[in-house]
Amino acid sequence: MTNKDVIKALEQIKTYTSADLLDEIECAISIIKKLEEDGVSKPLETDFKKLASK
């Protein structure tokens, strides 16, 4: 699954979620978009400690 797939799914979930969870869903979408922009295509398999030292 790619970040774009996750973003698409979260956008669909956002459409149907309750109003009190919209901020959390939007935050998750922003995080995945930022990871995608930064070139992290597989966040669950990425060693962020190595990225931080670059």
How is this structure best described in words?
The chain is mainly α and 54 residues long. Helices cover 65% and strands 0% of the residues. It has helices spanning 3-16, 22-37, 48-52. The longest helix is centred in the middle third of the chain and has 16 residues, at 22-37. The chain is elongated, with a radius of gyration of 13 Å.
| Head-to-tail CA distance between termini | 26 Å
Portion in strands: under 5%
Q: Based on helices, strands and strand pairing, what is the structural class? A: mainly alpha
Shape: elongated
Helices and strands, in order, run as HHH
Strand count = 0
Summarize model confidence as the mean pLDDT: 90
Largest sheet: none
* Helical amount: 55-70%
| Total DSSP helices | 3
Task: List strands and helices in order, with pairings.
Layout: H1 3-16, H2 22-37, H3 48-52
Helix pairs in contact: 1-2
Short overview:
The protein has 54 residues and is mainly α. It is 65% helix and 0% strand.
Write out key terms for the chains shown:
54 residues; mainly alpha
